[in-house]
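In the laboratory, one determines a bound structure by crystallizing the protein with its ligand and collecting diffraction data. In a computational setting the workflow is compressed into a single prediction: the sequence and the ligand go in, and a structural description comes out. We illustrate the idea with sodium ion.
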Amino acid sequence: VSGCNSESRGALVVLEGLDRSGKTSQSSRLLKYLEGLGHSVELWRFPDRSTNVGQMISSYLSNKSQLDDHTIHLLFSANRWEKRSLMETKLKTGTTLIVDRYSYSGVAFSSAKGLGDEWCKAPEIGLLAPDLVLYLDIQPEKAAERGGYGDEKYEQLEFQRKVAQCYQVLHDASWKIVDACQPIEDIEKQLQELVLECIMACQKGKPLAN
Ligand code: DGP
Ligand code: NA
Ligand code: NA
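The predicted complex, in C-alpha cell form:
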C-alpha cells in the first residue's frame, strides 16, 4: 500500500490563488515529490472540464456561451459535487489529493461579481473540507506581468483585483499563505513541508470533515 499504512486516510490539499499565481505548476511539482516518496497521491483540478457540467463551464469561460452569474456559480459548485463521492472514496482508501482550486475559488470569483457571500457559500456546504489550503499570494499586477493572461473570461486585471480582495476575507484555520513571488524552488520547498506535516496529521487520525 505504497508508503502509508492501509488504515490511514489521505489528505485533502487544495491550492488556491489568482490566475497565474503558479498553482498549476506547483501542484505538478507536489505530485512528483509525493510520488517520489512512495505516497499514494493524485492531482485533481476544478473546474474539471471533462464532465458534461465541466464542458458547459469551459464553454462559458471561453466566451462561447453566456450564462447568468447565479447559473454559472451553481454549475461550478455542481462540478465539485459530482466528484464528491469519488473524492471521499479516494481519501478514505489512503490516497492524498492535491486539488488545483476548490470552493474558495467558487466564492471568491462570484462574490467579485457582486453576488452575496452567504449566497455564494451555500451550495458548497457539505462538500469535503480541505485539510490544508495553500494560498499562493501574488499581487494582481504581478500576476498579469507573468506572460500576460490568456483569452478566458476572468483573465483581466481589473477583475482579478476584485477576486484578490474577495479571497482575503475567506481564509480560515486550514490556510497557509505562501508568497508566490519567491523563487519557484523556494515556494516548492515550503509547500512540501506543509503538505508532509498535513499528511502526517491525517495518518495520525485527524478526522475527515464536511
Ligand atoms: P483554471 O482552470 O484554474 O484556470 O480556472 C478557470 C477559471 O475559472 C479561472 O479564471 C478561475 C475560475 N474559477 C475556478 N473555479 C471557479 C468557481 O468555482 N467559480 C467561478 N465563478 N470561477 C471559478
Ligand atoms: Na485560468
Ligand atoms: Na490554474
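Residues 75 and 114 are 17 Å apart (CA to CA). Keep in mind that any predicted model is a hypothesis to be tested, not a measurement.
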